[in-house]
Design brief:
Elements (H helix, E strand, L loop, with lengths): L2 H15 L6 H7 L1 H17 L3 H15 L2 E2 L4 E2 L4 E3 L5 E2 L4 E2 L4 E3 L3 E3 L18 E2 L4 E2 L4 E3 L3 E2 L4 E2 L4 E2 L7 E4 L4 E5 L21 H49 L1
Parallel strand pairs: 1-4, 2-5, 3-6, 4-7, 5-8, 6-9, 7-10, 8-11, 9-12, 10-13, 12-14
Antiparallel strand pairs: 14-15
Helix pairs in contact: 3-4
């Protein structure tokens, strides 16, 4: 595909995924995702050719301009979009497929890189993200794990295990809350949200506990009534005896 066609494809992918986007001109000049990816496309080639310091310098400059930190060694597919962008971090050995969407504050990082650092050099230590994945704002995806295609990761989740295809995960640590058929959605769902019919397993647990509490309350009410009933009988019988005694004295 010619360079110009690839470039316009990137711009159109932003327009298709952000309702606030205008035309290609506004996307070109106003979207930090476009700016940082232009820098990364160049820096990644330089990194592969061995000009690593130059590649790092380019990405450091892009970070100052956009607030997005991407290592030049990271492999990123076509039509990658970072909405808002600020605070995104993508590590050296991360791999990202096509049509992936990130929101601000997302991290593709390693697990404890400051511990036993030497053994982690030149090895895979960052996540692999499949095609059509959406990762919500503030999510942390850590370690050499795989996120299957069409997966959704909710905002502020911490993911340290593999995620299957077409699964939505949320929470700390991230847990599966819904799954769907392995097909590309015709409607883009922003922020990694689950479908309307999805049910959080934790909601089911809480609902079960509330039902159990209500059942226990009902049983307690019955027991209280049973305890009070003998007292009422004793009071009524003592009243009858008193009335009989009064009749004899007269």
């Amino acid at each position: 595909m010619p360079v110009f066609s690839k470039f316009t494809e990137e711009l159109d992918s932003v327009i298709s995924r952000d309702p606030a986007a205008g035309g290609r001109i506004s996307v070109l000049f106003l979207y930090p995702s476009v700016h940082v990816m232009l820098a990364h496309r160049l820096a990644h080639r330089l990194w592969r050719w061995g000009f690593k310091i130059t590649a790092r310098f380019i990405m450091q400059f892009a970070r100052m301009l956009t607030g997005i930190e991407i290592h030049p060694g990271a492999r990123i597919g076509r039509r990658f979009f970072i909405d808002h962008g600020m605070g995104v971090v993508i590590g050296e050995t991360a791999e990202i497929g096509n049509d992936v969407t990130f929101y601000h504050g997302v991290t593709l990082g390693g697990l404890l890189p400051s511990v036993d650092t030497e053994s982690q050099r030149l090895v895979k230590r960052h996540p692999t993200i499949g095609d059509d994945v959406i990762i919500g704002s503030g999510a942390q995806v850590l370690g050499p794990i795989t996120i299957g295609r069409c997966a959704r990761i909710g905002a502020n989740s911490v993911v340290v295990k593999d995620v299957a295809e077409c699964v939505t995960v949320t929470g700390i640590p991230a847990r599966e809350v819904s799954s769907r058929r392995p097909q590309k959605e015709t409607v883009f769902r922003a922020y990694g949200t689950a479908s309307e019919n999805s049910v959080d397993s934790r909601e089911l647990v809480i609902k079960g506990l509330l039902d159990e509490v209500q059942s226990l309350r009902s049983r307690l009410n019955v027991l209280e009534d049973d305890i009070k009933s003998p007292k009422r009988d004793e009071i009524s019988s003592s009243s009858d005896q008193e009335s009989k005694g009064e009749g004899k004295s007269c």
